[in-house]
């Protein structure tokens, strides 16, 4: 762990969202936090901060020390080091939640000796002081940005150390391999190098299975964190906006019988049984002379290339048209579900005819108007996200590209170590690959990560967290 890299500065920031609310919080952390609070806060009961135990709340006023003006009536929470979020002295001023009192209190804390915190600096200090590892620190922002209960559960699991513990167990196993091989190198007269290499080969295979299991959660973890980018496409007036409204369970998009109603892109988050869908309703894809509609069609084509999942709508009450075939042609190499809508109307489109153009993709018959088939569609999407590889109740998820990349590289170095053993190469060559794998896994928890990566991660946080 990178201990001792925190600044001696005392930092201050507004820790709640800007805007009107019942309560807003100004947070101050550092060695001067209590000194600063003592300059600004006057207890109604006449208590001195030096006499107050940690994790106690005082009622009083924030006073401008220069003018003697009362700025706000507040609650002051004291958390003494190391029993705080940052492991430093922290005071939190619970003000009235308007932007003016919050900004006034923040300005007074800085005038009294604090500086404005950088984005994510409170959590960065928690990491650098050993309270959180890097995977847990990343889970903090995942909790803040969670879009569904399932997203929140996965993030809380990582904050609790579920992912970190698995990574640490893997690192310990690799360290044991290294120790076993180095012992064999140190005692060549015992002639145990070959036996040690064989034992390590078995351990590498077991570790590879564990890494594979963790990597299997990466796609699901990313979706739970960011949302499944889902694009609804089809020719005009096929029911795309109606499907969006049905999944949202509210009338978000305008629905009319006039083809080409949707010209711009409509984007919303939808909670599908705990899976967040970043769902996009696009303009109907067709040839058109209308300049605005044409721009919408081009944008729809672009989004198809960027999507994780495409929902293609066809009209059951009409034969397959050239426009439908043009839409289906966009699916090459993409994950898609084909939906034959308006199945409540007299049918003119058979599933068998559609399947000729879908490359064995799933074809479902639905009626958005009557709500038929939507429950089945939702279940298909959930099953697709979890892929049968991880269960919804599993706590440890690889939640971002950085973690997945480190796991992939660690797995690659283990594969190289195994190949080195099979090639009968010297034991110290095996150790080099194993140590590289051990260091890569350490990047996930922050034990072997560079300061530039740390800075990059915490700049993604908001100021005040």
From TrEMBL:
The lineage of its organism: Bacteria, Bacillati, Bacillota, Negativicutes, Selenomonadales. (6S)-5-formyl-5,6,7,8-tetrahydrofolate binds at residues 27, 92, 131, 465. Binds 1 potassium ion per subunit. It comes from the Bacteria. It is found in: Cytoplasm. PROSITE patterns: G_TRME (PS51709). This is tRNA modification GTPase MnmE. Its EC number is 3.6.-.-. It comes from Sporomusa ovata. GO terms for cellular component: cytosol. It is an enzyme of class 3 (hydrolase). Belongs to the TRAFAC class TrmE-Era-EngA-EngB-Septin-like GTPase superfamily. TrmE GTPase family. One of its GO terms (biological process) is tRNA methylation. InterPro entries: G_TrmE, GTP-bd, GTP-bd_TrmE_N, GTPase_MnmE, MnmE_dom2, MnmE_helical, P-loop_NTPase, Small_GTP-bd. Its cofactor is K(+). Exhibits a very high intrinsic GTPase hydrolysis rate. Involved in the addition of a carboxymethylaminomethyl (cmnm) group at the wobble position (U34) of certain tRNAs, forming tRNA-cmnm(5)s(2)U34. One of its GO terms (molecular function) is GTPase activity.
